[in-house]
Amino acid sequence: MRSLSKIDIIGLGMNCVDCLIKVPSITDLSHRLVLDWSIQGGGKVATAMVAAARLGARVSVMTKIGQDEAGDFVISDFKRYGVDVSKTIIQGGCNTSIVFVLIDPKGNPRWVDVKTIEDWDLPEPIRHMVELVKAQDRMSGVAFRKFTRDELEFVTEGKILLLDCFLPECLNGGLIARIGKIATCLDMYFHPGLEGLLRNITYCIASRRSAVEFTGKVDPETACRKILEFGPEVAGVTMGEEGSVFMTRRGGFLRQRAFEVQVVDTTGAGDVFHGAFCYGVVRGWDLPKIVEFSSAVSALKCRKLGGRAGIPSLEDVERYVRITTQ
């Protein structure tokens, strides 16, 4: 592995607190039953950074939280996993995002508004989070300040930068990284400024839904080709239990099968995939090994409730891949 004398991976993106509630059904909510629950840190880039740290990389996250109870939880959760938060904006008067996710017995998630569950008989910790959100709704709130140009220069301190499409600073962050010859990875989510961001991206990985929304192409191979036209060197589409497809600008192509596990919750599986992918890039692996590894890490995560509780160690992943590919 390359030296860890400097930061391996820097993440620039949003975060939240995930309130996860296991229920009998996510379509018919008349039951109002809570089978299991958990409160964990969440967010695309945020959870990816936790995954990379769990695997052994030195990581730092550039994100924004309110100076509030939920923000304190976010910071403590990052620190628990060894994620550097020294460049995170902590701002008074702003609200840290709290989201509620219902999970059915097959592990399928459904994000819901607080009003959907506020009159349920909830576990006290979840009830407390409901009250925090209701209190946020009564506050006017203050807009988060933007990362300055000087602050964004920090992205060149890593070996790869992971971005989402939610912070407006991601566009400049990606540009600064490209100028500094730092690899970039994008967790793609369709929004109006996406085309400009893609010009500065090395690895673009999209869920099937995001790929279809952006390219208009249902076939994942065709979607990859379309994404490559905007600048990335590598494009990938993840498809859950159907695996993933990746293409390179040089004509390379690979299809990765999904690993089979006993699924408890798929929340955060894509986020964890991105964190593992960045870890593989830092290790200097070739693309097939990176994708196989990322698929295994993502699958193993799904054995527990939430995006972070099930993230495996490097040793667990290596053992699992060795056994399942023999």
Core attributes:
four-stranded mixed β-sheet, 37% helix, eight-stranded mixed β-sheet
Biggest sheet overview: 8 strands, mixed
Residue share in helix: 25-40%
Structural class: alpha/beta
Shape: globular
Count of DSSP E strands?
A: 14
* Assembly annotation: single chain
Mean pLDDT: 95
Radius of gyration, Cα only, in angstroms? Answer: 19 Å
Beta-strand content bin: 15-25%
Distance between the termini: 24 Å
Q: Within the largest sheet, what's the order of strands?
A: 4-1-9-10-11-12-13-14
SSE string, helix = H, strand = E?
Answer: EEEHEEHEEEHHHEHEHEHHEEEHHH
Low-confidence stretches: 1-5
SS element count, helices: 12
Overall description:
This protein has twelve helices and 14 strands. The strands form three sheets. It has an eight-stranded mixed beta sheet, sandwiched between helices. A four-stranded mixed beta sheet has the order 3-2-7-8. A two-stranded parallel ribbon has the order 5-6. Helix 10 packs antiparallel against helix 11. The N terminus is likely disordered.
Strand and helix layout:
Layout: E1 9-12, E2 16-22, E3 36-42, H1 44-55, E4 59-62, E5 64-66, H2 69-80, E6 89-91, E7 98-103, E8 109-112, H3 114-117, H4 124-137, H5 149-152, E9 160-163, H6 170-179, E10 183-188, H7 194-198, E11 203-207, H8 208-215, H9 220-228, E12 234-238, E13 244-248, E14 253-256, H10 269-283, H11 287-301, H12 314-324
Helix pairs in contact: 1-10, 8-9, 10-11, 11-12
Brief summary of the model shown:
With 326 residues, the chain is an alpha/beta fold.
